[in-house]
């Protein structure tokens, strides 16, 4: 890195520019009392100014050279009773996705080992169903998967539909690091009639989603909750989604930004792709409003070229899914992602490198060891709430 000697005088402008490239000793505070107007103002700012500001905040809170590599596995595919209008796994739509039973433990462990060998530090398992009711044996199998994969030193995430507080507690005890439950879009757009006369989802309410997120958070599991762009929503809805998570008592540790991949047979099969600038704007706004959160460039990443992805990483996206397959859409393979990251000076993040995830894991290990953790979770709502707009 270039270090000016004592005789080199930098202009104020250059000093400001260089200051965005190093972690600040006093990062901007995390705020939990956002108004929609505040967030809209950020979202509407000129795009390159927005990216610059997001990149600066990213560098205060994260190592900008690190990208979390996650691998996703569908452990129970298709046949789902829910009617999510974007999903090929719903039994209500005629799609190429075929229903299957919950997979056995060993193939999942094999896939996790392979993911680890290839540099992934988080392994996520998804099951296509509404919830775990009536699935006692299946849940026990999943708890074993979680225990075994956590034992490999990986972060473990699941997405299993709605959870009760007791189920969340059992998952935590088994070693679950994170639970994914997306809000999808704003509260206002969620029930609204969209293309072809169907809602985004009718079988699960927004509040039921928030209840599952609360159960996960209360169990001490990291929350992964974000949305999908391209459902037919407006800028106001994208702001509404960010507002919803920004005002939670703790910001989610992970915020996935998915771009709809329209699937034939689903009600949204003919949706227009969301413009790249909208994806970049959403990522940048989320980075500013949720400064400590991992922003996950999720489904639809394959539609972006390398330079577009790099711009997203610049603006604060710091996690990707990599491997063989997303839940139902294609994924970039490890070797391609590693080569891309090398070209842009990026490298994989270690397990439990994110401070908030590490804190929750520390608390879990301390409880298991029978000691009170000095790093027990803090009440994020008590953090500094100075206006950072
Ligand atoms: S998104 Fe999940 S809950 Fe909705 S239909 Fe697909 S598998 Fe079922």
Automatic annotation (TrEMBL):
GO molecular function annotation: 2 iron, 2 sulfur cluster binding; 4 iron, 4 sulfur cluster binding; biotin synthase activity; metal ion binding
CDD domains: Radical_SAM
Record carries keyword 4Fe-4S: yes
Region entry Disordered, spans: 368-389
Biased composition (Basic and acidic residues): 380-389
Record-level GO cellular component terms: mitochondrion
Binding, [4Fe-4S] cluster: 80, 84, 87
Note accompanying the cofactor annotation: Binds 1 [4Fe-4S] cluster. The cluster is coordinated with 3 cysteines and an exchangeable S-adenosyl-L-methionine.
TM region(s), chain numbering: none
Record-annotated Radical SAM core domain positions: 62-301
EC number(s) given by UniProt: 2.8.1.6
Pfam families xrefs: BATS, Radical_SAM
Domain of life: Eukaryota
Names of required cofactors: [4Fe-4S] cluster; [2Fe-2S] cluster
UniProt-annotated binding residues for [2Fe-2S] cluster: 124, 157, 224, 296
Coiled-coil zones: none
PANTHER family: BIOTIN SYNTHASE, BIOTIN SYNTHASE, MITOCHONDRIAL
Family per record: Belongs to the radical SAM superfamily. Biotin synthase family.
Name of the molecule in the record: biotin synthase
Organism, as annotated: Dichomitus squalens
Upper classification of the organism: Eukaryota, Fungi, Dikarya, Basidiomycota, Agaricomycotina
């Amino acid at each position: 890195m270039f270090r000016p000697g004592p005789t080199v005088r930098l202009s104020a402008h250059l000093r400001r520019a260089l200051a965005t490239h190093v972690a600040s000793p006093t990062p901007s505070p995390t705020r939990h009392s956002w108004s929609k107007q505040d967030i809209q103002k950020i979202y509407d700012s000129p795009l390159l100014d927005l990216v610059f500001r997001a990149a600066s905040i990213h560098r205060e809170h994260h190592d900008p050279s690190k990208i979390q590599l996650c691998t996703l596995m569908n452990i129970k595919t298709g046949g789902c009773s829910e009617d999510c209008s974007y999903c090929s796994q719903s039994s209500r739509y005629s799609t190429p996705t075929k229903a299957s039973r919950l997979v056995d433990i060993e193939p999942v462990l094999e896939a996790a080992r392979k993911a680890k060998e290839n540099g992934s530090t988080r392994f996520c398992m998804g099951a296509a169903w509404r919830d775990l009711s009536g699935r006692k044996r299946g849940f026990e199998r999943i708890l074993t998967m979680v225990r075994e994969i956590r034992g490999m030193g990986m972060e473990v995430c699941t997405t299993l539909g709605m959870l009760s507080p007791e189920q969340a507690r059992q998952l935590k005890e088994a070693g679950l690091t994170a639970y994914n439950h997306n809000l999808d879009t704003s509260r206002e757009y969620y029930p609204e009639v969209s293309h072809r006369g169907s809602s985004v989802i009718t079988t699960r309410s927004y509040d039921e989603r928030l209840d599952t997120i609360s159960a996960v958070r209360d169990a001490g599991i990291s929350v992964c909750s974000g949305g999908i762009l391209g459902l037919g929503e407006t800028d106001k809805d994208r702001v509404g989604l960010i507002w919803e998570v920004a005002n939670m008592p703790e910001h989610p540790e992970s915020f996935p930004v998915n771009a709809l991949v329209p699937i034939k047979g689903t009600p949204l099969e003919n949706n227009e792709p969301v413009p790249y600038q909208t994806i970049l704007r959403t990522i940048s706004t989320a980075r500013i409003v949720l400064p400590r959160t991992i922003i996950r460039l999720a489904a639809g990443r394959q539609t972006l070229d390398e330079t577009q992805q790099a711009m997203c990483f610049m603006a604060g996206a710091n996690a990707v899914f990599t491997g063989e397959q997303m839940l139902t859409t294609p994924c970039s393979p490890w070797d391609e992602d590693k080569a891309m990251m090398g070209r842009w000076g990026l490298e994989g993040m270690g397990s439990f490198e994110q401070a908030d995830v590490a804190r929750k894991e520390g608390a879990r290990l301390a409880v298991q060891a029978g000691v009170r953790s000095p790093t027990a979770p803090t009440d994020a709502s008590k953090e500094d709430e100075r206006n950072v707009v």
